[in-house]
């Protein structure tokens, strides 16, 4: 074999090895997808649907779904994404605010009036600004927006409540972060940080006096078994995101990215449709099961929230212009 022929054969061998390596790596994609949401809830069900859609596309991507904080504890999911311990999570705006404070206004009580307005904002210019900030500042790719529901107050024991002053001293379980505790303060309660997975027992034993979640989550988590009353504050019309670590996203082929993105959009839409439809009747269902459901005038709660946020140092870091674009004042 002449020297040129030898060199050509070596180059061909290296090229083949690289092709196999690249192909093998692109085919060996496993996406570990974590949520603190209960397995029975629409969000976790949509994640299973997402996994099925990706598997059916047969592009070498496998999705492993971990509901109910079964792989990563609540609050540790975004750091786990950024360290490469998981590839996806149902990231909330509260977790975003911890690293992109200007976006903290998305956690403001009474920001959105309803689901349609929230989705219009998330799919418009403000949503695009959020997407870009999360990608650049957090190294996370937002694939789609899932509606978690409109959060309502939920008490262990019946209490006559016409305004925040009636909730003074009520130990209300909230997820653990400064933004969640500020939200609790804006409602007039004494916020008690606790993971979702510990909330049922805390309500059952009286460690906390209540919790706040969308009614569809309340039902999925069976909190109606250990509480007596819901007060319909709709204080947070909440989006969560199908979020992926950018290194995992960038490591996929274009074909894999297209499949994963399309599946994330379709699965989130399935969650949104099911959640919205259920929300139209879940209060009635819970009331039929014995839960007292109070519809009250929210003016005192809105006034309290305005006062708390106007004095909050945390709120001073928010992008006031974007917030005003949403709230109009
Ligand atoms: C909760 O812990 O009350 C909460 O509703 C907070 C939300 O931000 C979200 O994390 C939710 O739990 C589920 O974990 C779905 O992500």
Quick structural gist:
The chain is 49% helix and 20% strand.
Commentary on this structure:
It is built from 14 helices and 9 strands. The chain is α/β, with parallel strands linked by helices. The chain has one domain: Bacterial extracellular solute-binding protein, family 7 (D-Maltodextrin-Binding Protein, domain 2, 3-Layer(aba) Sandwich). Strands 1, 2, 3, 4, 5, 6, 7, 8 and 9 form a 9-stranded mixed sheet that branches. Strand 1 (about 30-35), helix 2 and strand 2 form a beta-alpha-beta unit. Helix 2 packs antiparallel against helix 11 and helix 7 (about 180-185) crosses helix 13 (about 300-310). The radius of gyration is 23 Å and the shape is elongated. The chain starts with a helix and ends with a helix. Mean pLDDT is about 95; it is low at about 20-25. Bound molecules: 3-deoxy-alpha-D-manno-oct-2-ulopyranosonic acid. 3-deoxy-alpha-D-manno-oct-2-ulopyranosonic acid (KDO) binds next to strand 3. The site of 3-deoxy-alpha-D-manno-oct-2-ulopyranosonic acid (KDO) has 14 residues, from strand 3.
Number of domains: 1
- Assign the CATH architecture: 3-Layer(aba) Sandwich
Contiguous helical run count: 14
Write the CATH fold name.
D-Maltodextrin-Binding Protein, domain 2
Small molecules held by this entry: 3-deoxy-alpha-D-manno-oct-2-ulopyranosonic acid
Q: Determine the fraction of residues in helical runs and give it as a percent range.
A: 40-55%
Radius of gyration: 23 Å
Structural class: alpha/beta
**CATH homologous superfamily placement:** Bacterial extracellular solute-binding protein, family 7
- Give the rounded overall mean pLDDT: 94
Count all strands and give the number: 9
The 3D shape can be described as elongated
């Amino acid at each position: 074999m002449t020297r040129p022929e030898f060199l050509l054969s070596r180059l061909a061998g290296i090229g083949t090895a690289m092709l196999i390596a690249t192909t093998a790596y692109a085919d060996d994609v496993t996406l570990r997808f974590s949520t603190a949401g209960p397995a029975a809830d629409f969000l976790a069900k949509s994640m299973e649907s997402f996994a099925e859609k990706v598997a059916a596309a047969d592009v070498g991507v496998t999705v492993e779904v971990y509901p109910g904080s079964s792989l990563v504890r609540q609050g540790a999911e975004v750091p786990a994404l950024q360290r490469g311990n998981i590839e996806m999570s149902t990231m909330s705006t509260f977790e975003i605010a911890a690293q992109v404070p200007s976006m903290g206004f998305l956690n403001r009580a009474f920001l959105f009036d309803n689901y349609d307005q929230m989705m219009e904002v998330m799919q418009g210019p403000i949503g695009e600004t959020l997407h870009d900030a999360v990608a650049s500042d957090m190294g996370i790719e937002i694939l789609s927006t899932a509606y978690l529901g409109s959060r309502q107050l939920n008490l262990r024991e019946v209490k006559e409540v016409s305004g925040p002053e009636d909730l003074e001293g009520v130990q209300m379980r909230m997820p653990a972060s400064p933004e969640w505790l500020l939200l609790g303060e804006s409602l007039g309660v004494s916020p008690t940080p606790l993971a979702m997975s510990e909330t049922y027992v805390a309500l059952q034993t009286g460690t906390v006096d209540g919790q706040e979640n969308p009614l569809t989550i309340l039902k999925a988590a069976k909190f109606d078994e250990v509480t007596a009353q819901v007060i319909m504050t709709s204080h947070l019309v909440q989006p969560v995101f199908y979020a992926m670590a950018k290194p995992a996203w960038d490591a996929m082929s274009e074909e894999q990215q297209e499949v994963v993105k399309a599946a994330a959009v379709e699965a989130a839409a399935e969650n949104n449709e099911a959640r919205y439809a259920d929300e139209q009747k879940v209060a009635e269902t819970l009331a039929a099961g014995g839960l007292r459901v109070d519809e009250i005038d929210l003016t005192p709660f809105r006034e309290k929230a305005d006062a708390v946020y106007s004095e909050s140092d945390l709120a001073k870091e928010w992008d006031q212009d974007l917030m005003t674009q949403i709230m109009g004042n």
